[in-house]
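Quick one: Heterogeneous nuclear ribonucleoprotein M from Monoraphidium neglectum, structure tokens please.
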Amino acid sequence: MAEGEEGVMRIGRRCYVSNLAWRTSWQDLKDKFRECGNVVYANVTRGDDGRSKGWGIVEFETPDEAIAAVNTLNGVDLGGRRISIVVQGIPWKFTWQDLKDLFTEIGDVERADVMQAPDGRSKGWGTVRFLSKEAAQSAIDSFHGSDLEGRTLTVFLDKKA
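--- reply ---
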């Protein structure tokens, strides 16, 4: 999430990409994600030892390009591994309970998690596990693209689910 010149937050342009092959570089990410739009930033997170942590960030010029990446590249092969993509969009103050409560409107929620940074702050994305596939699809139909406290939600079925 980046802050613009007038203090306006630009939301929904970044994709979190996981399950990267260890040899995948930031350039590999950028080259692959250019299929969906103008990539303004790409990075593969590395540990203190310089080795890949298996995940990275790709930022597009527009939120629509980020959504296109989720819809077309989630689960594709990159460097011999099927990558997973999530676009951030959960309000920063949301806890797992807030997320669970929101999606309980749709169906029975087995578990909800909000991913956190090492300092305990929200990363702005999470997962919700429903007891039925129908409820999961209903959540996608109901919430994908909707605004929640000034953030645009991107909701999709996790390919590993």
